[in-house]
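User: You have something folded?
Assistant:
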Amino acid sequence: MDFKDSITKENLMKAFAGESQARNRYNISAGVARRQNLHVIDMVFTFTAEQEKEHAEIFYNHLQEMSGENIHIEGSYPVDISDDVARLLRMAQHNEYEEHIDVYNAFAEKATAEGFAKIAASFHMISKIEKTHGDRFGEFARLLEENKLFVSDVNCAWMCLECGHIYRGTSVPERCPVCHHDKGYFVHLELVPYRGS
């Protein structure tokens, strides 16, 4: 099939639009978290937003053959506005799972049927990443909902994301004893990316 006549090109543009909007929604949600001194949640949203930018770029680059042309698409996209950070996390979780379960698998099947194996592979691989995003958002939402973002039932390790200080206890200090940033920068050590061995 000629790419210019394909549904796959439209699906790529929908995916590009969706990932671009997700990035902006997550940056906006990061600002809500930041204003509430939930710096670790701010960082989770910002970290994920940058990955969404990368996904958008991957989908966009598959459209190189359409350079200089317009692709008309129709779609619906979520409006995730709230001052409740746990709710923002749950909405993001829902959207990520929807991409993982429904949207990108359908797009991959269509790309395969139309003969675009490389594009289908991108949809499949990014679908798996979206599940990881949803899982991460869900875990942080659960911690907020259970009031366990900064406290634990057992003695555990926490890391200050600003300076890297490791603190042990059942709750984080009001301020990091090393860099003096507020408790909103602490996260359970097992949730820290790149924590090493």
